[in-house]
Amino acid sequence: MRTRPYEEHVTGGARIEYKVFVPSKKSAPAPGTDRLVDKIREGLFVTYLRNPMVGIDEVARHAGVSTATVSRALSGNGHVSPSTRLKVEASADELGYVVSSTASSLASGRMKNIGVVVPFLNRWFFSSVVEGAQKALLRGGYDLTLYSLTGGEAERRSVFEHFLLRQRVDAVIAISLELTEDEVARLHALQKPLVGIGGPIEGVRTLTVDDVAIARLATEHLLALGHTRIAHIGGNKDLDLDFHLPTNRRVGYEQALAEAGVVPDPALFQAADFTMGGGYQAAKQLLGSPYDRPTAIVAASDEMAIGSILAARDLGLVVPRDVSVIGVDDYDLAEFFGLTTIAQFPQGQGEKAVEILLDRLRPGQNRLSSLNTPMPFELVVRSTTARPGE
Fold first, then answer.
1. Is the confidence at residue 115, as pLDDT, over 70?
2. Where do the HTH lacI-type domain residues begin and end (predicted)?
3. 339 close to 384: Cβ distance less than 8 angstroms
């Protein structure tokens, strides 16, 4: 094969380069090769490499606007009408123009990067919040830097005392982390917008999830079906971190029972680790004896609820005839198992946090409100709950 020199095809003021590969004289040309080369020369068909040197001036000429307007439209800084922004974006896309992240950062003082701090990555809820945040950031033209605190207290100190302070992020989302006064003060001192997801954080805009109310709703659903011997599979004390989710869900469960005149029975509580395996083992303990067996289980997560369903089946029990099961989250497999659950829309929480931050990062916006924003949750009734014996 021999290669012709680069040839130029000019369109809309931009130079696009392409290579044409022509068979050597030693081999017969592939069928249609000559026609393909002719079409390329005629501009009817082009296989090309975009010229990496296309600049902002060429985008401005193509769109019929000033370079300043192009800069504002593509950076998101300053006012540009929606129609002009679309026109500039279309021209940039057609010409293959990509904004230099370094130049953009120097011009705007922003890194176009949001830091997300999460306690675990091996839990469906946390990974779903991160997924929602990432989708929203991609739509907004921002990158995501993820900090997982699975290494314990020393790693947490490093994140807040060093990594987040290197000015590599424009804002921070803290997922299910009860930030200390010192951590909040460090971030506020750097004038970095901060949004929390979970329980309330003093002085920080937080998307709050009412874990007490969630557990109450789950338990009230079972009470309304006529169950009174209701077990609870919650988190163990080792996982009672930050916003005390396991404790709060146990409180909600016990409140609902007490208001219905049912005395909570400590023997009907089993601690687990929010995994299917943990739920399976806990349910085996609760359901193993045929005497005084619970007729229903409130699991603090869908993963533990699914483990409970599998344990019941292995014990020869039929769900929901012999035992009803309800979870929390609306996990990906919940519908497959027909699991009744309390949906709390974790992806939506991640997207909402990003929406708040990006709005704050727009020029001219005031400081974030410290008000808490309650996040929605709802009962989703499927086939794992029914009246006792049905």
1. yes
2. 54-108
3. yes
The 10s digit of each residue's pLDDT in 340-363 is 999 999 999 999 999 999 988 887
- pLDDT, one tens digit per residue, over 366-385 is 666 667 889 999 999 999 99
Question: What burial class does residue 81 get, using C-beta atoms within 10 Å of its C-beta: 0-12 exposed, 13-18 middle, 19+ buried?
Answer: exposed
Name the CA dihedral angle for 333, 334, 337, 340, rounded to a multiple of 10 degrees: 180
